[in-house]
Design a protein that fits this description.
About 75% of the residues lie in helices and about 0% in strands. By secondary structure, the protein is an all-alpha fold. The longest helix has about 30 residues. It has one domain: Methane Monooxygenase Hydroxylase, Chain G, domain 1 (Up-down Bundle). The protein is built from 3 helices and no strands. Helix 1 runs antiparallel to helix 2 and helix 2 runs antiparallel to helix 3.
Length: about 80
């Protein structure tokens, strides 16, 4: 299944922000910053990454439902969805 990048433009922006957040976390650790600040940033990045994953799967599910010749069945899509839980 190939998902049109235009449909996932907001998700791509979110992933780029996560990429920046992870870089920031690495810098914070290297600088010896407070544990609470680091954990807060890790949690924010994790939540954003989860949301991006759900958006990708939701778009994929929609594509599969609309496409009669989809290579994925509902069990495979469910497994992908649950892998984020």
């Amino acid at each position: 299944m190939v998902i049109d990048p235009v449909e996932l433009e907001a998700t791509l922006k979110r992933l780029k922000r996560v990429q920046g957040q992870i870089g920031g976390v690495i810098t914070m650790i290297e600088q010896g910053r407070d544990c609470k600040e680091i954990v807060t940033q890790v949690a924010a990045a994790s939540k954003a990454l989860d949301r991006a994953g759900f958006a990708i799967i939701a778009t994929g599910l929609r594509e599969c439902v609309l496409s009669e010749d989809s290579e994925y069945d509902s069990a495979q899509m469910e497994k992908l969805f649950l892998s984020l839980a």
